[in-house]
Amino acid sequence: MSKIREILYTFAFKKALFYAENNDWSKIERLSKLAQKIPSMKEYEVFIKYIRKYAEDPSGASNRLVNTVLTGLNAKVRYKFLTNLFIKATLIGGAKAAKIAGEQECNIPWAILLDPTSACNLKCIGCWAGEYDQHDSLSFQEIDNIIMQGKKLGIFMYIYSGGEPLMRKDDLITLAEKHQDCAFLAFTNGTLVDDLLVKELVRVGNFVLAFSVEGIGEATDMRRGAGTYAKVIKAMDLMREAGAGFGYSSCYHSKNIEDVASDEFVDLMIEKGCLFAWYFTYVPVGKDAVMELVALPQQREYMYHRIREIRNKKPIFALDFWNDGEYVDGCIAGGKSYFHINSQGEVEPCAFIHYANVNIKKTTLLEALKSPLFAQYRKNQPFNQNHLCPCPLMDNPTKLKMMVHQSGAHSTQNLDRENVDELTAKLQSVAESWGEVASGLWEQRITNPSEVRD
């Protein structure tokens, strides 16, 4: 039955792409209305509503984004990546994962974030990966095994971080070629992107990039090193000209809010060909973390409003890992929607939570998802009824402290083994300050939802 459903979904999605390519809005709307009537798609109402919004408003930002996808992406990339993302990872995989999660009484995520290597050709200020040993890597066989196990659980979305994942670009291309039913994304500093890699990305079709950039020129070079911004822009130009899929990723902190959120910057990224934007707030992981870079409450509030403005007015799909908690019922880590496997094989609930009970080299994926720390996440999510305070570290540090102690998890940071008591203590005042602001935003959301929501 699931195979028949997959065939039907794929056929419908292919038809929708065809109608979009031919500007046939009436048929797209008709198709979306039909999709809403399918019982098994009830949980995907947000996606269907987005498609209907696109069909009903040809002049809107979402429509302009879809037009960029249709005219700017190579046909193979467009069909292969989007089909894997929406059909395999979201519809088919999501239903399978939910079923197994219920049977096994554990979280089964939509995506796995993993580090092929901890090595990097840059040393960016405030990088959480900087707390790992720079000589660790997952072998090709280990990554391949993770993906094969993941697919059996319904996971068809794989995201690479690091270190710099493109230091393993040959292996990553081979994995994308082998697993043509999956969607792959890599966060990259962009300095290793060349003509050959771009051609390979287009050839496999199911692998896109997210360029890490923190503003125009010096705003990026300040954190990532002189000359980095120019290399990123060159890489984007290569990707756009070839029709490869990509977006940008920005870490916002107390010194760069105006840079990463400005119209000038966002418009330039769109002009360069970015289709999506992922925003993250600076997380002071490690004993030597620069606390002065933590975004102030009023800055985070600004980003809360700004990310919604970008989504409504700009032809780019923008997400804020922290400020969009209201759409996903709080924290998405711990296997709820994703989890992290570092280059040592340590299975962590989040890229910013460097504690674990198990190593993937010694256990199965399902066993890892049922480990004590992950069980604590499942038991305690959401960590706050105010979903604008989703994070157990930045927003609810006492919850993280409790879960680590309850689970007996160990630190995965080889360089300083930061004690969870020390880590959470330095963020207590940050959480309290933001909590006061977030409380007002949450109340406003409840009383005047149209004023604050998309």
General description of the model:
This protein has a 9-stranded mixed beta sheet with strand order 7-6-5-4-3-2-1-8-9. Strands 10-11 form a two-stranded antiparallel sheet. The model is unreliable at 39-43 and 128-132 (pLDDT under 50). It has helices spanning 2-21, 25-36, 45-56, 61-72, 75-104, 140-153, 169-178, 195-204, 218-224, 228-242, 257-261, 263-272, 297-313, 365-369, 372-380, 397-407, 420-425, 428-447, 449-452; strands spanning 111-114, 157-160, 183-188, 207-212, 246-252, 276-281, 317-320, 338-341, 347-348, 355-356, 410-411. Helix content is 50%, strand content 10%. It is built from 19 helices and 11 strands. Strand 8 and strand 9 form a beta hairpin. With 454 residues, it is of the alpha/beta class. Helix 3 crosses helix 4 (61-72) and helix 15 runs antiparallel to helix 16 (397-407).
Provide the spatial order of strands within the biggest beta sheet: 7-6-5-4-3-2-1-8-9
Number of helices: 19
Class by SSE composition? alpha/beta
Report on the biggest sheet: 9 strands, mixed
Low-confidence stretches: 39-43, 128-132
Mean pLDDT: 87
> In percent, how helical is the residue content?
40-55%
What is the total tally of β strands?
11
Order of helices and strands: HHHHHEHEHEHEHHEHHEHEEEEHHHEHHH
Shape summary = globular
N/C terminus separation? 36 Å
Report the radius of gyration as a whole number of Å: 21 Å
Instruction: Indicate the proportion of strand residues.
Output: 5-15%
